[in-house]
């Protein structure tokens, strides 16, 4: 399974005026620093939106082609260590649950693609 965390750098798209750096860019910096510290910097990517816009900042962990997708919202930089630990363990193939500290940050979960219905 090739898991990868996609961090939205556009959030907060509704901020007036938009801060510089954006909340998403601040979140990305915190995540990248923690990911480099634990050796999974390669598993972090950026994206323009993960559909968490009404509740910024957003990110999504996609677990390979056809795999499940955890979508997060309302992330803040102090969430980075718990989020990166969760991502690192999923990247390593552990079937760990979302940690309690991030439970209220899960906006949705898309099930992995299963066998085609008959
Ligand atoms: S703009 Fe960040 S989730 Fe849509």
Strand-pairing-aware structural class: alpha+beta
- The CATH topology name reads Glutaredoxin
pLDDT averaged residue by residue? 95
Silhouette: globular
Percent range for helical residues?
Answer: 10-25%
Low-confidence stretches: none
**CATH architecture level-2 label:** 3-Layer(aba) Sandwich
Number of helical regions: 2
- Name the beta content range: 15-25%
Could you walk me through the main structural features you see in this protein, from its secondary elements to its overall organization?
- Helix 1 (23-38) packs across helix 2 (80-91).
- The protein starts with a strand and ends in an 8-residue tail after the last strand.
- The protein has a five-stranded mixed sheet with strand order 2-1-3-4-5, with helices on one face.
- It is of the alpha+beta class and 118 residues long.
- It has a single domain (3-110), classed as Glutaredoxin.
- The protein is 24% helix and 20% strand.
- The protein has helices spanning 23-38, 80-91; strands at 3-8, 44-47, 59-63, 69-72, 106-110.
- The longest helix has 16 residues, at 23-38.
- Bound molecules: FE2/S2 (inorganic) cluster.
- The site of FE2/S2 (inorganic) cluster has 12 residues, from loops.
Layout: helices, strands, pairs:
Blueprint: E1 3-8, H1 23-38, E2 44-47, E3 59-63, E4 69-72, H2 80-91, E5 106-110
Parallel strand pairs: 1-2
Antiparallel strand pairs: 1-3, 3-4, 4-5
Bound molecules: FE2/S2 (inorganic) cluster (FES).
FE2/S2 (inorganic) cluster binds near residues 24 and 52.
